[in-house]
Amino acid sequence: GAVVSQHPSWVICKSGTSVKIECRSLDFQATTMFWYRQFPKQSLMLMATSNEGSKATYEQGVEKDKFLINHASLTLSTLTVTSAHPEDSSFYICSAREHSAGGAPVEQYFGPGTRLTVT
Amino acid sequence: GDSVTQMEGPVTLSEEAFLTINCTYTATGYPSLFWYVQYPGEGLQLLLKATKADDKGSNKGFEATYRKETTSFHLEKGSVQVSDSAVYFCALSGPLRGYGGSQGNLIFGKGTKLSVKP
Q1: Which of A38, A98, A36 minimizes the C-alpha distance to A69?
Q2: What is the mean pLDDT of chain B?
Q3: Which residues contact B14 (CB under 8 A, 6 or more apart)?
Q4: Which of B105, B107, B113 to mutate to test the interface with A (most CBs of A within 10 A)?
Q5: Is A41 exposed, middle or buried (0-12, 13-18, 19+ CB in 10 A)?
Q6: Staple A48 to which of A7, A58, A97, B108, CB 3.0 to 4.6 Å?
Q7: Does residue B76 contact residue B19 with C-beta atoms inside 8 Å?
Q8: What's the rounded Cα separation, in Å, for the pair B7 and A109?
Q9: Nearest by CB to A57, which of B46, B101, B109?
């Protein structure tokens, strides 16, 4: 099946610094990528949807100036957490999906996640 | 809006016991339904899916049937193993809203943690 990678798998940073997380589709072209946040013992919360070459669409309550998303190519999307604070500590998961002609739902493939800890 | 409700855990079973994790949904139109599994320390993996009413998804001994009349997609397995210990998420694909918007994004339930004891 299709593979999605994330880098780094875990990162510890100091409060006030910025952290970039990469999401790559390794064997397919992802016209759409999604970024989720998962709190302990809770479900995945969709943060934003990004289509290659256009601005990301953020879900309500997600600060777009804090969580910068770039989807510059069909195989790479990045999430940058700017001026990170301890409350941003979480598990961030990306997923990627190919474009389907006719708009029919196509399976999303998930990355393994990135554990961010802000001290 | 669209939503998924699944039974709260944790669920603790003995090996070879029968498993049911309930999942119901609310959606406009005809969503696709999914079960994802998250093993400790790993990312989500698609376990099975069903794209239309009465479809049965199955994989690794797990199965779930898309029941439109009861808006349910309950996950079942006849005999669980210790290796099935994980968190299970029920999800549906949301409505398509055009190329530039939230196009068929997944909506997840809160997850059910399953622990299987030897």
Answers
A1: A36
A2: 88
A3: B116, B117, B118
A4: B105
A5: exposed
A6: A58
A7: yes
A8: 24
A9: B101
Nearest alpha-carbon partner for A19 in A106, A84, A108: A84
Residue A48, pLDDT score: 93
Q: Check pLDDT > 50 for residue B97.
A: no
Q: Do A42 and B111 touch (CB under 8 A)?
A: yes
Instruction: Write out chain A residues lying below 8 Å of B29, CB-based.
Output: none
Report the candidate in B117, B38, B35, B43 with the shortest Cα–Cα distance to residue B81: B117
Chain A partners of B43 at a C-beta cutoff of 8 Å? 6, 93, 110-113
Query: Whole-angstrom Cα distance, residue B42 to residue A76?
Result: 21
A60 part of contact set with chain B, CB < 8 Å = no
B66 contacts chain A (CB < 8 A) = no
- Give the integer Cα–Cα distance in Å for B50 and B73: 9
Average pLDDT (B8-34) is 93
Q: Using the beta-carbon criterion (under 8 Å), do B111 and A57 form an inter-chain contact?
A: no
Higher pLDDT, B18 or A2: B18
